[in-house]
Amino acid sequence: MEKARQLSVTLENVSGQLERLCRVLAQAGVNIRGLSVSDATDLSTIRLLVSDPPAAQKALKQAGLAVLAQDVLVLDLEDRPGALEAIAARLGAAQVNIQYIYGSGDRGRGKAVLVLKVDDVDLAAQTLA
To answer: Mean pLDDT, to the nearest integer, of 84-106?
Structure first.
């Protein structure tokens, strides 16, 4: 488990916006390590884990994009039934609210990676340590 700095960018929900975001990061030499897109009718929220959050934030702001930086937890866990339930139970018992999660399994290799946005990152990290 590690704490990470996540960047959130809101874009118009129209063709070409994700490509624009990716181009800005590529030109800044920043690698995308995690990505979540939540869409609404007119806007999409892009949540990113990147190789260099300060450089990414600077490049995105210079491109005229509003960026919000937040701390999240990145967990490696077993890719098996009940693994997330165990995490949720421990956090719930500690009164830590999970605001959202995104992630992926590794397609049969036995591990999953989850990004958790919680209301108290330090307490969550202490609870899961």
So the answer is: 94
Pairwise CA distance, residues 53 & 39, whole Å: 23
Condensed to tens digits (0 to 9), the pLDDT of residues 6-25 reads 999 999 999 999 999 999 99
HEC readout, 43-109: EEEEEEEECCHHHHHHHHHHCCCCEEEEEEEEEEEECCCCHHHHHHHHHHHCCCCEEEEEEEECCCC
What separation in angstroms does the CA of 84 have from each of 20, 119, 126? Answer: 34, 18, 17
* d(C-alpha 88, C-alpha 44), whole Å: 27
* 41 phi and psi angles, rounded to 5 deg: -60, -50
- With b meaning 16 or more CB within 10 Å and e meaning fewer, what string describes 96-114? bebeebbbebeeeeeebbb
